[in-house]
Design a protein that fits this description.
CATH class: Alpha Beta
Helix content: 40-55%
CATH superfamily: 2-enoyl-CoA Hydratase, Chain A, domain 1
Structural class: alpha/beta
Radius of gyration: 18 Å
Strand order of the largest sheet: 1-2-3-4-6-9
CATH topology: 2-enoyl-CoA Hydratase, Chain A, domain 1
Number of strands: 9
Shape: globular
Number of helices: 11
């Protein structure tokens, strides 16, 4: 459990996130992920990074329960700083980062894949920002890198999700494959990238980041200012308390299928559990 790095093939580092049951990362988990990404990018033997996850889905964002049981605002501050660090580490990684996404990719997961250089997704993958339902704001910066502006706004304001197939049509997902083939497909793309000269790849990554029309770090930190405003006003706590209470009540009900419901065009309300 946690964040681990492996080197299954020459020139490729695979970073795996594993925080059961749904990869809702605690504060330290975000910082650990950022450290792993920086270490992989700084390794001269690495020419491409594949970011993947174990378990039911790719990422369910921050651990809201940790935030609610921690007195004061320390967990909120830590989560915001950790997310900014991890998202930035994906973007600033010296070599290309490929996100291998299966199942749900929510909240902070959007920040990771939105800053990745390429995305390979399973045919059951869904992407969305349920922030308004959970007393938070942020990562619109990254969702806008995945879908056009008006779709981003509609998804954000409704807390609906988009499917991997929809993102593929918009050009943000490179390939959609069966769930069991996601990592293999990501590794195949990574091998193609890693076949290039490592020094040139690093120059290319720096050059492409340098011409990006949006400063993703500054843009995301601007969004986080409104998250703090929602928290200082007490508005965010009310929504998080309601979310945690609802999930606690559901956990007492008879067990149902653990598989997240599939999205329907043009999206569906987020239903994943934490």
């Amino acid at each position: 459990m946690g964040v681990s790095t492996s080197a299954p093939q020459d020139g490729i580092a695979v970073i795996t996130v594993d925080f059961p049951p749904v990869n809702a990362l605690p504060v330290q988990g975000w910082f650990d992920l950022a450290d792993a990404l920086r270490a992989a990018g700084a390794d001269p033997a690495v020419r491409c990074v594949v970011l993947t996850a174990a378990g039911r889905g790719f990422n369910a964002g921050v651990d809201i329960k940790e935030m609610q049981r921690t007195p004061g605002h320390q967990a909120l501050i830590g989560a915001n700083r950790g997310c900014a660090d991890a998202f930035g580490a994906v973007y600033d990684c010296e070599v290309p980062v490929i996100a291998a996404v299966h199942g749900f990719c929510l909240g902070g997961g959007i920040g990771l894949v939105g800053n990745a250089d390429a995305i390979v997704a399973s045919d059951d993958a869904t992407f969305g920002l349920p922030e308004l339902d959970r007393g938070a704001l942020g990562a619109a910066t990254h969702l806008s890198r995945l879908v056009p502006q008006h779709l981003m706004r509609a998804l954000y304001f409704t807390s609906r999700t988009a499917t991997a197939q929809e993102l593929h049509r918009h050009g943000s997902v490179w390939e959609v494959v069966p769930r069991e083939k996601v990592l293999d497909a990501a590794l195949a793309l990574a091998r193609e990238m890693a076949a290039k000269d490592g020094e040139l790849l690093r120059l290319a990554k720096a050059a492409i980041n340098g011409i990006d029309p949006v400063d993703v770090r500054r843009s995301y930190r601007f969004e986080q200012g409104f998250t703090f405003e929602a928290n200082l006003s007490g508005l965010a706590d009310r929504h998080r308390d309601a979310f945690v209470s609802t999930k606690s009540a559901k956990s007492a009900e008879p067990a149902k299928s653990a598989e997240p419901a599939k999205a329907t065009t043009p999206g569906q309300p987020v239903k994943e559990e934490r």
